[in-house]
Amino acid sequence: MLIAPLIQSDCSKAALLHQQSFYKGWTEKDFKDFIDDPLIYGLKVTKDDVLTSIILWREVGNEAEILTLIVDPTYQKQGQATLLLKTLMTHLVHKNISQIFLEVAEDNEGAHYFYKNHSFQLLNKRPKYYKREGNNCIAALNLVKKLF
Protein backbone atom coordinates (compact mmCIF):
# COMPACT_ATOMS: atom_id res chain seq x y z
CA MET A 1 0.00 0.00 0.00
CA LEU A 2 1.15 3.50 -0.81
CA ILE A 3 -0.30 6.67 0.72
CA ALA A 4 0.09 9.93 -1.21
CA PRO A 5 -1.68 13.25 -1.86
CA LEU A 6 -4.84 13.13 -3.95
CA ILE A 7 -4.13 15.06 -7.17
CA GLN A 8 -6.03 16.26 -10.25
CA SER A 9 -5.23 13.14 -12.27
CA ASP A 10 -6.97 11.04 -9.57
CA CYS A 11 -10.30 12.85 -9.88
CA SER A 12 -11.93 10.50 -12.39
CA LYS A 13 -11.13 7.41 -10.31
CA ALA A 14 -12.07 9.19 -7.08
CA ALA A 15 -15.45 10.12 -8.57
CA LEU A 16 -16.11 6.52 -9.61
CA LEU A 17 -15.24 5.33 -6.12
CA HIS A 18 -17.52 7.97 -4.57
CA GLN A 19 -20.39 7.16 -6.92
CA GLN A 20 -20.13 3.44 -6.06
CA SER A 21 -20.28 4.27 -2.36
CA PHE A 22 -22.97 6.96 -2.09
CA TYR A 23 -26.48 7.46 -3.44
CA LYS A 24 -25.62 10.87 -4.93
CA GLY A 25 -21.90 10.47 -5.56
CA TRP A 26 -19.68 13.34 -6.54
CA THR A 27 -18.52 13.88 -10.12
CA GLU A 28 -15.03 14.24 -11.51
CA LYS A 29 -15.65 18.00 -11.72
CA ASP A 30 -16.65 18.05 -8.04
CA PHE A 31 -13.34 16.46 -7.11
CA LYS A 32 -11.38 18.83 -9.35
CA ASP A 33 -13.12 21.80 -7.73
CA PHE A 34 -12.31 20.44 -4.27
CA ILE A 35 -8.64 19.93 -5.11
CA ASP A 36 -8.46 23.46 -6.56
CA ASP A 37 -9.80 24.91 -3.30
CA PRO A 38 -6.84 26.14 -1.19
CA LEU A 39 -8.56 25.02 2.04
CA ILE A 40 -9.23 21.43 0.90
CA TYR A 41 -6.72 18.57 0.95
CA GLY A 42 -6.83 14.91 0.08
CA LEU A 43 -4.93 11.68 0.52
CA LYS A 44 -5.20 8.42 -1.37
CA VAL A 45 -4.13 4.85 -0.86
CA THR A 46 -3.09 2.83 -3.87
CA LYS A 47 -2.31 -0.86 -4.04
CA ASP A 48 -0.66 -2.24 -7.17
CA ASP A 49 -1.35 1.12 -8.88
CA VAL A 50 -5.10 0.87 -8.14
CA LEU A 51 -6.82 3.69 -6.23
CA THR A 52 -8.33 1.85 -3.26
CA SER A 53 -9.29 4.59 -0.78
CA ILE A 54 -9.40 8.35 -0.31
CA ILE A 55 -9.95 10.95 2.37
CA LEU A 56 -10.79 14.57 1.64
CA TRP A 57 -10.89 17.31 4.27
CA ARG A 58 -11.16 21.06 4.75
CA GLU A 59 -9.01 23.10 7.16
CA VAL A 60 -10.28 26.41 8.56
CA GLY A 61 -8.53 28.07 11.48
CA ASN A 62 -7.94 25.51 14.21
CA GLU A 63 -10.66 23.16 12.93
CA ALA A 64 -10.93 20.59 10.17
CA GLU A 65 -13.85 18.79 8.57
CA ILE A 66 -13.69 15.41 6.85
CA LEU A 67 -15.64 15.79 3.62
CA THR A 68 -15.44 12.13 2.62
CA LEU A 69 -13.62 8.92 3.50
CA ILE A 70 -14.12 6.01 1.13
CA VAL A 71 -12.59 2.57 0.83
CA ASP A 72 -13.36 0.45 -2.21
CA PRO A 73 -15.48 -2.48 -0.95
CA THR A 74 -12.88 -4.94 -2.28
CA TYR A 75 -10.30 -3.46 0.10
CA GLN A 76 -12.44 -2.84 3.19
CA LYS A 77 -11.49 -4.36 6.54
CA GLN A 78 -7.78 -4.13 5.66
CA GLY A 79 -6.96 -1.03 7.73
CA GLN A 80 -6.94 1.54 4.93
CA ALA A 81 -9.56 3.82 6.51
CA THR A 82 -7.67 3.72 9.80
CA LEU A 83 -4.39 4.47 8.00
CA LEU A 84 -5.92 7.50 6.27
CA LEU A 85 -7.62 8.78 9.42
CA LYS A 86 -4.50 8.40 11.60
CA THR A 87 -2.33 10.05 8.94
CA LEU A 88 -4.80 12.92 8.77
CA MET A 89 -4.96 13.34 12.56
CA THR A 90 -1.15 13.41 12.83
CA HIS A 91 -1.03 16.04 10.08
CA LEU A 92 -3.67 18.16 11.82
CA VAL A 93 -1.95 18.02 15.22
CA HIS A 94 1.30 19.20 13.58
CA LYS A 95 -0.65 22.16 12.19
CA ASN A 96 -2.15 22.93 15.64
CA ILE A 97 -5.65 22.01 14.49
CA SER A 98 -7.43 20.99 17.68
CA GLN A 99 -10.63 19.34 16.50
CA ILE A 100 -12.10 17.54 13.56
CA PHE A 101 -15.72 17.34 12.47
CA LEU A 102 -17.66 15.18 10.03
CA GLU A 103 -21.17 14.24 9.01
CA VAL A 104 -22.34 10.69 8.53
CA ALA A 105 -25.71 9.39 7.38
CA GLU A 106 -27.75 7.99 10.22
CA ASP A 107 -28.21 4.70 8.31
CA ASN A 108 -24.47 4.18 7.68
CA GLU A 109 -23.83 1.68 10.48
CA GLY A 110 -20.33 0.79 9.30
CA ALA A 111 -19.24 4.43 9.50
CA HIS A 112 -20.85 4.83 12.93
CA TYR A 113 -18.87 1.87 14.24
CA PHE A 114 -15.63 3.08 12.64
CA TYR A 115 -15.84 6.62 14.00
CA LYS A 116 -16.97 5.50 17.45
CA ASN A 117 -13.91 3.22 17.61
CA HIS A 118 -11.79 6.28 16.82
CA SER A 119 -13.32 8.31 19.69
CA PHE A 120 -15.59 10.59 17.68
CA GLN A 121 -18.56 11.85 19.66
CA LEU A 122 -22.04 12.87 18.58
CA LEU A 123 -22.39 16.64 18.44
CA ASN A 124 -25.89 16.96 16.96
CA LYS A 125 -28.27 15.63 14.34
CA ARG A 126 -29.53 17.25 11.11
CA PRO A 127 -32.91 15.79 10.17
CA LYS A 128 -33.68 14.90 6.55
CA TYR A 129 -30.20 15.85 5.33
CA TYR A 130 -29.19 13.04 2.94
CA LYS A 131 -31.43 12.16 0.00
CA ARG A 132 -32.31 8.57 -0.67
CA GLU A 133 -34.34 6.82 -3.38
CA GLY A 134 -37.96 7.82 -3.76
CA ASN A 135 -37.58 11.32 -2.29
CA ASN A 136 -36.84 9.82 1.12
CA CYS A 137 -34.34 11.59 3.34
CA ILE A 138 -32.21 10.42 6.24
CA ALA A 139 -30.68 12.42 9.06
CA ALA A 140 -27.01 13.38 9.20
CA LEU A 141 -25.16 12.86 12.44
CA ASN A 142 -22.55 15.52 13.15
CA LEU A 143 -19.55 14.05 14.94
CA VAL A 144 -16.52 15.68 16.52
CA LYS A 145 -13.16 14.57 17.86
CA LYS A 146 -10.85 16.73 19.93
CA LEU A 147 -7.26 16.11 18.90
CA PHE A 148 -5.64 17.81 21.90
Topology:
Blueprint: E1 2-5, H1 11-21, H2 28-36, E2 40-47, E3 50-60, E4 63-71, H3 80-94, E5 99-105, H4 109-117, E6 121-131, E7 137-146
Parallel strand pairs: 4-5
Antiparallel strand pairs: 1-2, 2-3, 3-4, 5-7, 6-7
Helix pairs in contact: 1-2
Summarize it:
30% of the residues lie in helices and 41% in strands. The protein is an alpha+beta fold and 148 residues long.
Describe, in plain words, how this protein is organized in 3D.
The structure is a single chain. With 148 residues, this protein is α+β, with helices and mostly antiparallel strands. The protein has one domain: Aminopeptidase (3-Layer(aba) Sandwich). 30% of the residues lie in helices and 41% in strands. The chain contains four helices and seven strands. A seven-stranded mixed sheet has the order 1-2-3-4-5-7-6, sandwiched between helices. A hairpin with a 2-residue loop joins strand 3 and strand 4. Helix 1 crosses helix 2. The longest helix is centred in the middle third of the chain and has 15 residues. The mean pLDDT is 95.
Which tags fit this structure?
seven-stranded mixed beta sheet, 148 residues, alpha+beta, globular, Aminopeptidase
Secondary structure tally, helices: 4
Distance between the termini: 29 Å
Major β-sheet annotation? 7 strands, mixed
- Average per-residue pLDDT, rounded, comes to 95
State the name of the first-level CATH class.
Answer: Alpha Beta
How much helical structure, as a percent, in the residues? 25-40%
SS-based structural class? alpha+beta
CATH homologous superfamily classification: Gcn5-related N-acetyltransferase (GNAT)
The shape, in one word, is globular
Q: What gyration radius follows from the Cα positions, in whole Å?
A: 15 Å
**What share of the residues does DSSP label as strand, in percent?**
35-45%
Question: Which regions have little confidence, pLDDT < 50, spanning 5+ residues?
Answer: none
